């Protein structure tokens, strides 16, 4: 898996390949050869073509490029689809079906954004440039990372970290941590926002003197 912020050039490549007449399965094979993982391919195809997240998932799952992984991934299909949904919550795309997921996507973005803005309130503007840029682009995962970085550089009260923990729950970051696996080493395949969520979960757990907050 690559960082979502690095997928832009692959989206443009995919559009160019398809426009030149390349078949969808050929494009997916090229993307995999360039090191993109399955979730990356789903996200790139979704962004490049405008097809729904479900359709992109099906196209990738049944493509020749991923045939060898299909049996294994059938057991992980729900997790892969959920990870794609969570990425949309974080700001990587739009959920347009089914209606219940559209409603959940909007609710989680609204709640997560509210918690992030509450955490940022009162911080000096010079520390919030990255946060404001990410929020303007609706990249809530990047906004979360920006606030965690600010918190790591300053002595901020426990309330700040509690607000970020609430944002992480609303944005499904703790759920995504579980999908990636507790043994995953930060920096290998984990996204920057997942690494930030791990830090927040550990920070809040130390403060509370108890286990990590429940995912929700």
Architecture overview:
This protein has 216 residues and is mainly alpha-helical. The protein has two domains: 4-75; 107-208, no CATH class. 68% of the residues lie in helices and 0% in strands. It is built from twelve helices and no strands. Helix 10 (158-170) crosses helix 12. The chain is elongated. The two termini are 24 Å apart. The relative contact order is 0.09. Residues 182-190 and 211-216 have low confidence and may be disordered.
- The helix/strand class is mainly alpha
Biggest sheet, open or closed, and with what strands and sense? Answer: none
Q: Quote the average pLDDT.
A: 84
Q: What does the overall shape look like?
A: elongated
The span between the termini is 24 Å
Helix content: 55-70%
Provide a compact summary of the structure:
The protein has 216 residues and is mostly helical. It has helices spanning 8-19, 24-33, 38-49, 53-61, 70-74, 77-92, 99-120, 129-136, 140-153, 158-170, 173-180, 192-208.
């Amino acid at each position: 898996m690559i960082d979502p912020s690095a997928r832009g050039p692959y989206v443009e490549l995919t559009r160019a390949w398809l426009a030149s007449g390349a078949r969808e399965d050929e494009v997916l094979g090229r993307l995999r050869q360039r090191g993109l993982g399955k979730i990356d391919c789903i996200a790139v195809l979704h962004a490049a073509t405008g097809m729904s997240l479900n359709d992109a998932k099906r196209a990738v799952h049944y493509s020749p490029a991923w045939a060898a992984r299909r049996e294994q991934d059938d057991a992980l299909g729900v997790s892969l689809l959920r990870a794609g949904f969570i990425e949309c919550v974080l700001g990587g795309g739009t959920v347009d079906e089914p209606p219940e997921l559209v409603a959940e996507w909007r609710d989680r973005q609204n709640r997560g954004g509210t918690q992030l803005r509450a955490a940022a309130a009162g911080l000096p503007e010079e520390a919030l440039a990255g946060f404001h840029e990410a929020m303007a682009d609706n990249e809530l995962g990047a906004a979360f990372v920006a606030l965690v970085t600010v918190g790591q550089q300053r002595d901020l009260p426990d309330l700040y970290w509690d607000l970020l923990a609430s944002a992480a729950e609303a944005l499904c970051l703790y759920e995504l941590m579980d999908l990636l696996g507790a043994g995953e080493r930060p920096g290998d395949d984990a996204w920057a926002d997942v690494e930030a969520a791990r830090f927040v979960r550990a920070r809040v757990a130390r403060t509370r003197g108890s286990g990590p907050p429940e995912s929700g």
